[in-house]
Amino acid sequence: MIRLPKLPDKTPIKLAITIMPDLDEKLRAYASFYKDFYGNEESVSSLVPAILEAFLEGDREFSRRRKKSGAK
């Protein structure tokens, strides 16, 4: 058996959402903060997947339930 496990599917999935103006304002402010902090500009659309991933990874109850159910 090969040591390296099969790589996960990395095919991007396009997701279209509608957000309220106040959330748009917060995301733009976050992108500005990100630029100030790291020194490089990223679009809101490129930051949103990372923000969602960080949110889901940080949700302990969600992680516990996924582990309990055997989800990846």
TrEMBL record:
Pfam families: DUF2274 (PF10038). InterPro entries: DUF2274 (IPR018733). This is DUF2274 domain-containing protein. It comes from Sphingosinicella soli.
